[in-house]
Amino acid sequence: MKTVRAFLAVPVDEKIVAAAQLVQRELAQRLPEVHWVAPQTMHLTLKFFGAIPQEKCARIMALMPLLAPRLTAFDTSITGLGVFPSPRRATVFWLGMGNLAAFRRLHAATEDSLAAAGIDRDPRPYTPHLTLGRSKKPLDLSGGLLEKYRHISCEKTRAEKLVLFESRLQPQGAVHLPILSVALTGKGEI
Fold first, then answer.
1. What is this structure's pTM?
2. How buried is residue 105: exposed, middle or buried, by Cβ count under 10 Å (0-12/13-18/19+)?
3. Is-cis flag, bond preceding 85, omega within 30?
4. I want to staple 103 with a disulfide (CB 3.0 to 4.6 A). Which of 128, 142, 144, 168 is the partner?
5. 90 contacts: CB under 8 Å, gap ≥ 6
């Protein structure tokens, strides 16, 4: 059975990517062991499916045009630097996104629709973020490096599309190929 490594995401525009690259360049000087995400692969993940059968991918594709008219586009921006799992054991570096309420409504509506189609919910709490880089070994950043970037921001941008991506792992990094894109055309609350 053929599988597709896939995820559902909100694409980010050039303003967000430019702000993210600025932070990456500054952090790279202090954190050379971190593998930084390529700008062309930056996105805001709503749900990572992993390797799924093509049949499940087809179900997701059939659901997306039905879901989009219920979802409303909204403004967002970068709100600051964060790390997973904690500042003392940082392995993932990310920028937080503004308008958390809208992102959480979008995520909840997406999860509800996918669950109704037989796709398991993600049990973890949702934190909207833009991944900047990853470190194989945990880094201790409790000394204040994060504080410098805690309040970084950029111009507002609009979250207005939902995209199903295929992620192909390559030796030089993942390549993300859009499979299906739908506009968030709803008129009211998500």
1. 0.90
2. middle
3. yes
4. 128
5. 83, 84, 135, 138, 139, 140, 141
User: Within 13 A of 118's CA, how many CA atoms are on the CB side?
Assistant: 7
Question: What is the amino acid identity at position 124?
Answer: R
The count of residues in the chain is 190
Cα 55 from chain centre:
24
Tens of pLDDT along 11-48?
998 989 998 999 999 999 999 999 999 999 999 999 99
Q: All domains of the chain, ordered by start, with CATH?
A: 3-183 (3.90.1140.10)
Contact 153, 96 (CB under 8 A): no
